[in-house]
UniProtKB/TrEMBL annotation:
<comment type="similarity">
    <text>Belongs to the aldo/keto reductase family. Aldo/keto reductase 2 subfamily.</text>
</comment>
<keyword id="KW-0560">Oxidoreductase</keyword>
<dbReference type="GO" id="GO:0005829">
    <property type="term" value="C:cytosol"/>
</dbReference>
<protein>
    <recommendedName>
        <fullName>NADP-dependent oxidoreductase domain-containing protein</fullName>
    </recommendedName>
</protein>
<dbReference type="InterPro" id="IPR020471">
    <property type="entry name" value="AKR"/>
</dbReference>
<dbReference type="InterPro" id="IPR050523">
    <property type="entry name" value="AKR_Detox_Biosynth"/>
</dbReference>
<dbReference type="InterPro" id="IPR023210">
    <property type="entry name" value="NADP_OxRdtase_dom"/>
</dbReference>
<dbReference type="Pfam" id="PF00248">
    <property type="entry name" value="Aldo_ket_red"/>
</dbReference>
<feature type="domain" description="NADP-dependent oxidoreductase">
    <location>
        <begin position="26"/>
        <end position="338"/>
    </location>
</feature>
<dbReference type="InterPro" id="IPR036812">
    <property type="entry name" value="NAD(P)_OxRdtase_dom_sf"/>
</dbReference>
<dbReference type="GO" id="GO:0016491">
    <property type="term" value="F:oxidoreductase activity"/>
</dbReference>
Length: 372
């Protein structure tokens, strides 16, 4: 039997970018739902996945994120079976397209062409047992398709009622700017969110990509907020990990992902970050993941942080970051300083010379400058 959740600890709700829809400040990522054979360790079956979703809802959660390629469609199918028993209008469902499903030999079964996007949304809607998705996101930039073709197709899906809002994921600064400019030039539905890897151990997107987000009111949805398990405190300086995704990478010759890089690549700065998070966690009587997640939740540009959970205990621990406490200004500064990304030229020059030139009215949307 699960423990009742006090109202003061339940999630809060934020607008998703410049859209008029509100989402829980912690989103439940569904990448762990489905068959383990698709390549990630620690997957959960349908029964366990539904228990995790139900517990997330008890926390007040309304924002569930998946993708067609997660477990090659099984993640969407598991979520869809659960959604069949729910009041659809209570939940914000997000999914993605663009990567290969790997289910057949078809050179057109990948990318952001009109053909692949339209086929992908229809298949996702069938698996999700719904007539529409609230947020439809391209999973990664596609060099093989023009931006206009991709964005006009997504705009058509909004007009057709299959999609409510458009989001992006895994792009560079110039790619995001090009998509924003193209949408404005042709009067298309605008991008409301960017799902990007973001954590205390991965802050490079602050240099360029998030500057575009700040200017145009695009909400950032961090994925891998605990850096594949690094920011849980389980990985120690100089010690080979023995559990979690990092352990599976260390024990195999599998291709290393950005979410869970080779453990041997972590330098002293990486573990200085972990040590600082751990010190604050001990001082505040919190877990290390809660502090790492809370740092993200207090970034103005972030409306919701995407977490993954394999057990109810793991979910409950992470959800305790949602509400009822805050990191102090001094603690935020400590974490900002120890995890500050290297600023190569011209970022070092631009940020330093603009430190006292912050003008809230200069852009469409204002968030405190990185220079501060």
């Amino acid at each position: 039997m699960t423990t009742p959740i006090p109202d003061e600890n339940k999630v809060t709700y934020n607008f998703l970018g410049r859209s008029g829809i509100k989402v829980a400040n912690i989103s439940l990522g569904c990448a762990t739902f489905g068959d383990v054979t698709w390549g990630w360790p620690g997957q959960t079956n349908e029964e366990a996945s539904h228990q995790i979703i139900n517990r997330y809802v008890e926390w007040g959660g309304n924002f569930l994120d998946t993708a067609d390629m997660y477990a090659l469609g099984k993640s969407e199918a598991i979520l869809g079976k659960w959604l069949e028993t729910q009041a659809r209008d209570k939940f914000v469902i997000a999914t993605k397209c663009g990567q290969t499903m790997g289910t057949e030999q078809n050179v057109n079964n990948v990318g952001l062409s009109r053909r692949h996007i339209t086929a992908s949304i229809d298949n996702s809607l069938k698996r999700l047992h719904t007539d529409f998705v609230d947020l439809y996101q391209i999973h990664i930039w596609d060099d093989g398709t023009t931006v206009e073709e991709t964005l006009r197709t997504l705009d058509d899906l909004v007009r057709a009622g299959k999609v409510r809002y458009i989001g992006l994921s895994n792009v560079t600064g110039w790619q995001l700017q090009k998509m924003v400019d193209t949408s404005e030039r042709f009067g298309l539905n605008s991008v409301v969110s960017l799902q990007q890897q973001y954590s205390l151990a991965s802050r490079d997107s602050e240099l360029e990509v998030f500057q575009v987000c700040k200017t145009y009111g695009i909400g950032v949805l961090p994925w891998s907020p605990l850096k594949g398990g690094l920011l849980t405190g389980k990985v120690k300086r100089g010690v080979k990990p023995t559990e979690g995704r990092l352990a599976s990478v260390a024990a195999s010759t599998a291709k290393v992902s950005q979410a869970a890089p080779d453990w041997k690549s972590f330098d002293d700065k990486t573990f200085d970050i972990v040590d600082t998070v751990e010190a604050i966690a001990k001082k505040r009587g919190r877990s290390i993941p809660q502090v790492a997640l809370r740092w993200l939740l207090q970034k103005d540009i972030v409306p919701s942080v995407i977490i993954g959970a394999k057990t109810l205990a793991q979910l409950d621990d992470n959800m305790l970051a949602a509400n009822g406490w805050s990191l102090t200004r001094e603690e935020m500064s400590q974490l900002d300083d120890v995890s500050s990304p290297n600023r190569p030229y011209p970022y070092d020059m631009v940020f330093s010379l603009n430190a006292d030139r912050v003008n809230p009215r200069a852009n469409n949307f204002y968030v405190q400058s990185l220079a501060n």
